[in-house]
Structure formats: structure tokens, C-alpha cells
TrEMBL record:
Belongs to the sigma-70 factor family. ECF subfamily. This is RNA polymerase sigma factor. The lineage of its organism: Bacteria, Bacillati, Actinomycetota, Actinomycetes, Kitasatosporales. SUPFAM superfamilies: Sigma2 domain of RNA polymerase sigma factors, Sigma3 and sigma4 domains of RNA polymerase sigma factors. It comes from the Bacteria. It comes from Streptomyces fuscus. Keywords: Sigma factor, Transcription, Transcription regulation.
Length: 199
């Protein structure tokens, strides 16, 4: 059916049409991406009702904000939205659980820092599902892979990753460092040009 590049260009054209209010393009985009998004969400959340809501919210967000897509790989952009929606859904559940036992005014404070621009390494890692990087990713430990997917592919903060995976923030940081080191080693074995060369 044509290569990965053609698919990316097709996605970009669909997103431009969606931004212009084309509902047929929206349906086509949904048909292309809903299946794998559902699968990945299901791996992270056992509640099918939550998965269904998150998937729906993701495409509502895409419909409203397709104009904000800046040409990055569409699958990665969609997954970042979906992962954030999943975090939001978990927050709502946690809050509902806490409301039964705590006063209403006991809302958590703390503002997340603004995400910094992705480094060259992160841009490489953003293609994690594909090509050599995907192959290298399969060679690292599953618990490290989860952290790398959450922090780099999903674009989540350390706190959000800790909440998503149910582990302490310190563990997220140490696993992320180990994951990057293992990934570099695996990539070096797969390809002669190291990832960390001069920019």
C-alpha cells in the first residue's frame, strides 16, 4: 500500500482537511488510527469504558485542534493527545475516590512545569514505534521501555508518568536514564552511526 512516508503525507493531508472542517477526512483519519490507539490504550488501562471515552475525547480534540498540527508524524501527535486524555481520566477517577473520604476543598495544588522543546535525541525517540529505533526498543527491559514510551513518545511529565505507571517519580527518573543508555547501546549494535553524533 505504499511506504511509511506516503502514509505520513496522507495523514498530513487528512489533518489539513479536518482543520478546514471536512468530516469525511475526520472519518478517514479515525478509520486509520482508532484501532492501534485503542490497542495501546487498552495496554495501559484495564477499564474498557475509560478506554472508549479516552478514544472519543482524543478524536474530539483532533477535530477541534487539527489546525495546531505542525507537520510532525501524525501517529505520534495523536498518541500524545490520547495519553494525556488517559492521564486526565485517571485524575478524575482519583479525585472521585478521594472525594468520598476527604473534604471538597482539599484539592491538590502544584503547577506542572511547561515542557521544554524536544532534543535531537527525543526527536529520534519520537519515532519509537518504527524502524531501527522500534527494533532497538524491543531489546531493552519492558519496565524501562514503558517509562521511555511514556516520557518520550507520550510526552508526559515525570509526575504524569509516575501516575500512569503507578511508580514513584524517583523511579521514573532513574529508569528513564537507564532506558536511554540501554537504547543507545542497542541502536549502536543495529546501526554503525551512533545516535549521539554532532548535531
Amino acid at each position: 500500500m505504499g511506504g511509511h512516508r506516503e502514509k505520513d503525507e496522507g495523514d498530513a493531508a487528512l489533518l489539513r482537511a479536518v482543520a478546514a472542517g471536512d468530516s469525511a477526512a475526520m472519518a478517514a483519519l479515525y478509520d486509520r488510527h482508532a484501532g492501534w490507539l485503542h490497542t495501546r490504550l487498552t495496554r495501559r488501562c484495564a477499564d474498557p469504558e475509560v478506554v472508549r471515552e479516552v478514544l472519543q475525547d482524543t478524536f474530539v480534540t483532533v477535530w477541534r485542534s487539527a489546525g495546531a498540527h505542525r507537520g510532525e508524524e501524525a501517529g505520534g501527535w495523536l498518541w500524545t493527545i490520547a495519553a494525556r486524555r488517559l492521564i486526565d481520566a485517571r485524575r478524575v477517577q482519583e479525585r472521585a475516590g478521594r472525594l468520598e473520604t476527604t473534604p471538597i476543598d482539599a484539592t491538590p495544588s502544584g503547577v506542572e512545569p511547561a515542557p521544554s522543546a524536544p532534543s535531537a535525541e527525543e526527536r529520534v525517540l519520537a519515532g519509537l514505534e518504527y524502524g531501527d529505533v522500534g527494533t532497538a526498543l524491543d531489546r531493552i527491559s519492558p519496565e524501562l521501555r514503558e517509562v521511555l514510551r511514556a516520557t518520550v513518545v507520550d510526552g508526559l511529565t515525570t509526575r504524569e508518568t509516575a501516575r500512569l505507571l503507578g511508580i514513584p517519580e524517583g523511579t521514573v527518573k532513574s529508569r528513564a536514564m537507564r532506558a536511554r543508555a540501554e537504547l543507545r547501546t542497542a541502536l549502536a549494535q543495529l546501526s554503525p552511526s551512533p545516535m549521539g553524533g554532532p548535531a
